[in-house]
User: Fold this.
Amino acid sequence: MDELGELLELLYGARHRFSTARGVLVHRHSTRLTMEAMKREQARQKRGAGGSFQMVFARSDTSGPEPPDLHEERIRFWWEPPDRLREEVESEVPHHARTSVIDGELWWTYSPDWGAISNVDLSGEERAQHGFGGGESFRQVLDPSGLIGVLEIDAVDVEGARLRVRARPRDDLEGRSAHFQLRLAVGADAFELLVDRDRGTVLRLAAYLDGEEIAVAEVEDVAFDEDFPE
Assistant:
């Protein structure tokens, strides 16, 4: 099998090569480059729709010092697919620190900023109307199958037990699904993936704009197939 065929098989089947996953994911991003990438993506969408537009991005508060450009989050995660997980987020971004637990249709979350919230006391009908997202950042690297449909693969290099992949977004991307899969950096013009050749999980996913790194999600530690308590 050639490298591209191996890559596609790995990404597609990664989710089915483990029963549980526990680890630490580090996510870093540049505010400046993220804003620039978003501007370009909105411009592309407008051009595709045949419209013309003018956009202005500005800080809402200019009285204080310039905020730092680089931000980092550390996410400790436990995931038992499809619907049991826990994540503990340490973040430099205001209001992003939280601990969340999902067990089937039940969820709990706690933030130092807004306290504790859960759907435990709601009726079944009310629960259906009050969903809760969780684990999006680590799910993407543990189940990278969704990337297959949104990336054009430019090169795949074998580096021992890993594949180093250079890719770019497809030119015809539209809709929420594409944005969800590339949410690490919407509007990035290039991506680099480091893929585990044993399980197919992504060890490092980086996004670029004009050769500069916008954001990166990197697995610092991971263990598979453990038994989790309730």
